[in-house]
TrEMBL record:
Gene3D superfamilies according to UniProt: Ankyrin repeat-containing domain
Boundaries of every F-box domain copy: 1-47
ANK repeat intervals: 93-125, 126-158, 156-188, 190-222
Species per Swiss-Prot/TrEMBL record: Penicillium hetheringtonii
Protein name in UniProt: F-box domain-containing protein
Amino acid sequence: MQILDLPNELMFLIFHHLDDEYATNALLQTNKRLYALLNKSLYIANAHSPAHQPSNGRPGMARSKLHHGIDTSPVGGWSTRDEYEEYETPLDDHGYPVALAAKRGHYEIVKLLLEAGAPSDEPTDRKNTPLSLAAEEGHLDIVKMLVRAGCNVNAEYVPPVCYAARDGRVEVVQYLLDNGADPNTIAPSRRITALELAAWSGHSEVIKVLLNHGADPYFNHRGPKVMPLCRAVDNAHFTAAETLRDAMDLSKIIDSGDPNDAEHILLLVASAACGWDSILRAVLERGTPPDATVSDPNVLRFVPLKHRFYIREHRARDLPLSALAFACFYGRLEAVKILLEHNVSLGEGDEEVIQNSFVLAVMGSHVDVITALLDHGANPNYRQQYNECPLMWAATSPEVLNLLLDRGATLELSGQSADSILEKVLIKGAVDGMKTLQRRGILASPLIFARLALGWAVSGGTRMVEYLLDQGYKVEPNGEEAQRALSNAVGDFDVDMINLLYARGLVYDLSAISGQNIFSYLECSGMMKSLMYYPLLLDHGTDPFQGEEEMDGKSPFLEAMGGYDARPIIRYMLKTLDGRNINLEELKEILDLAEEEAIERKKPDVIPLLHRAYWRKKYEGLP
């Protein structure tokens, strides 16, 4: 008997016992009769299950769902966790069809949903409105549609103009302001204004639009009037800072109030960072101490420096920083000279290297500023309590290295000092710095101190690794150091580095690190954080079905059953079975264990994948 000989009642019974929509869709596509019979039922059943037309932008499919009765209100039927797991990043506001389509920029989907009666201004679980999400992404056509539909341009929790200003959506900001958005609105979630958000992100054109519509450049409900300007300085957005400066009467601020208050100190530091020499002189002449520091961690946090300052970064956030520190790091020579004229301290007594102005100038590779500081008496051999010295921070700049060495800098060849500078050179990939140190005799035999040189060099890139190996550095193939380097490369998802380690014969495959299954190794070390690792590892021979003692004897395949991204990961792993010589009984044993694990981990959604893998194997090769 053929399947078409079965009565409709039996076909519906089969339909209701299939695992999921994937299997149902495969069945109804086999012939026209089944399609006509089951297609409507599939849509109806799908109304409260994963369906991502709002996010994928398929108007025809969305129209069919609406035709078959799907609810347009915010329910799980439009997008659920099972569906968005397949994306590299989960969607923030799943379950809200208008918000989802607005965020993705699908104009026709938004239009269809609104015409079908979907709520246009319904906030999501995260308090986002469709308008705020469309504004954030810069979808001007959708913003206009939603505003015409009556959406609130001044939504209380997430004002659309704040989102648009933060992300530099000039046309959207302009349109929202023209249609009643408050230019001085405050984002409650961040407690800062749209102008501050634009300044923080460095969007000068947005700042101009906001100012032209009446935004107050002094407005800050929490503190000093120069806060919006400081937001721009904090992230080194100097053009944005200049735009705000030109809209403010800074001389009035300088001439009023206590010269020791936060307003004046912030202006002192900001003007030094930006190189506004006349303003800096005016603040100093008003009586603000040149050594005054900003200690509030929420104000002028020196973000660009702290992103580069990778040692003890967790402590750097709360350190008080001076005007000289900012001027040195950004290479503001005239500002440095002005501060030195006022007998500013170089900060050599401070414990943290980030507070030492001379070291900051070295880190910024500003030769003219370094020279001025040396002429003023800066110590080229200043050592911080962790044995760091300026030479170590100059490792990436041959010009600065030569200047410091010419002015008396030295480096004791004790193990810790030599290893430290070698580590910095290798991690930064500073091949030219390595050559300079070797040429000057500082590291005539640099590799005798290295115990982790290859691992450091991996962080510095392929050019650094090739130079290290070409210098005669010996690494045992597949040995401990090679395995550590492989771990670093895999952890950085550096495919070029992995291929280089293969090409130089240092590693043989990706099946294991230090004798441990690489999946298990990465899971145990907390490095398996992204779905993108799996294709890389599987394509290089990693076995996801090998049990590990470190995982209580379970294979990575079984462990994956409990993961957040279980479905796509299981799919990747099951694909590797296609090329394996495994009989049906062995496969069934693997899949049965996996099904038990899925049930125990409360992951029923992966079970259909296991069933399909079994049936594919059982009937492979059949016509």
